[in-house]
């Protein structure tokens, strides 16, 4: 049996080469291979890489083990899709994350170019998901094979949505049965204020528990919870069916640290055995 509870399997996509981690590709590849060989491997998703760094990644991965599972991150939109898929030939492509300002155009491009066994997620800028834009976008995606992607943080305070905004996205997806992934700002399990930047970070446990809500106010209340003990207790009370519902909705998030989320889960009594990875201690 896996040492990783079902709620956390495949949850942490390895975004080590992205800000704020910015780990050199030559270091990220062996670190990722070590994660995939560790007892907590079932918690770790693919190594995420931007389209412009696939050549560098191929060089770092050559001769260092089996095929590397890679998630392609395409901030340049549909124009990057074809070239990135070609450049990713040395890898096992585990997914595509396509940023766009036009959901219909992105869906059409994915339908045309994406291999049928490769999943994809479509990300629109948050400013286009306010008001009617959110419903319009989710309605487009729910009629496609693709997930939504939502940005939950970044390098400036304005990159972090508040509880109500994030709750609107989560419940909009939940009501439609639309799966999604998140990215940025979710390194830690519990909602908190960063002591250095002052930024308000969502916790990934908060998001997991809010993923089962269809009422926006109820989801926002879960997202606002700052007690790790309260969240851990709620996780411990989840039924198997509830875990399945949650993970069918919230499929993964990108984190530049694998150690931090695992350490948090261990500290809350939600994950064992140890030791956990040392890469950022």
Task: Give a structural overview.
With 281 residues, the chain is of the alpha/beta class. The chain has eleven helices and ten strands. β5, α5 and β6 form a beta-alpha-beta unit. The longest helix has 14 residues, at 163-176. The radius of gyration is 18 Å and the shape is globular.
Class by helix and strand content? alpha/beta
Show unreliable segments: none
Q: What is the oligomer described by this structure?
A: single chain
What is the global morphology?
Answer: globular
Main-sheet strand order equals 1-2-3-4-5-6-7-10
Q: How much helix is in the residues?
A: 25-40%
Would you report the number of β strands? 10
- Biggest sheet overview: 8 strands, parallel, barrel
Radius of gyration: 18 Å
Number of continuous helical runs: 11
How much beta, percentage-wise? 15-25%
- Helix/strand order, N-terminal first: EHEHEHEHEHEHEEEHHHHEH
Give the end-to-end Cα distance, rounded to a whole number of Å: 28 Å
Q: How confident is the prediction overall: mean pLDDT?
A: 95
Keywords:
281 residues; alpha/beta; 8-stranded parallel β-barrel; two-stranded antiparallel sheet; 11 helices; 10 strands; globular
Element layout with pairings:
Elements lengths: L11 E3 L10 H13 L6 E7 L3 H8 L7 E6 L6 H7 L4 E8 L3 H11 L6 E4 L8 H11 L4 E5 L11 H14 L3 E4 L8 E2 L6 E2 L2 H7 L5 H9 L3 H9 L3 H10 E6 L3 H9 L14
Parallel strand pairs: 1-2, 1-10, 2-3, 3-4, 4-5, 5-6, 6-7, 7-10
Antiparallel strand pairs: 8-9
Helix pairs in contact: 1-2, 5-6, 6-8, 7-8
């Amino acid at each position: 049996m896996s040492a990783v509870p079902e709620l956390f399997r495949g949850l942490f996509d390895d975004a080590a080469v992205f800000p704020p981690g910015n780990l050199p590709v030559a270091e990220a590849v062996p670190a990722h291979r070590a994660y995939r060989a560790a007892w907590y491997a079932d918690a770790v998703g693919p190594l995420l890489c931007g389209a412009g760094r696939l050549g560098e990644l191929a060089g770092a991965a050559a001769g260092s083990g089996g095929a590397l599972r890679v998630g392609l991150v395409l901030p340049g939109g549909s124009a990057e899709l074809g070239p990135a898929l070609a450049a990713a030939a040395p890898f096992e492509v585990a997914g595509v994350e396509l940023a766009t300002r036009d959901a219909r155009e992105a869906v059409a491009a994915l339908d045309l170019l994406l291999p049928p066994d490769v999943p994809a997620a479509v990300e629109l800028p948050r400013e286009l998901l306010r008001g009617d834009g959110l419903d319009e976008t989710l309605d487009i995606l729910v009629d496609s094979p693709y997930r939504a992607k939502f940005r939950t943080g970044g390098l400036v305070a304005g990159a972090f949505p508040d509880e109500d905004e994030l709750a609107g996205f989560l419940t909009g997806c939940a009501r439609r049965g639309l799966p999604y992934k998140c990215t940025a700002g979710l390194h830690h399990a519990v909602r908190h204020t960063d002591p250095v930047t002052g930024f308000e970070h969502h916790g990934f446990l908060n998001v997991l528990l809010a993923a089962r809500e269809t009422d926006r106010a109820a989801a926002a209340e879960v997202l606002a919870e700052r007690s790790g003990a309260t969240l851990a207790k709620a996780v411990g009370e989840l039924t198997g069916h509830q875990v399945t519902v949650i993970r069918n909705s919230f499929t993964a998030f990108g984190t530049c640290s694998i150690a931090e989320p695992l350490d948090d889960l261990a500290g809350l009594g939600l994950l064992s055995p140890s030791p956990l990875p040392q890469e950022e201690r």
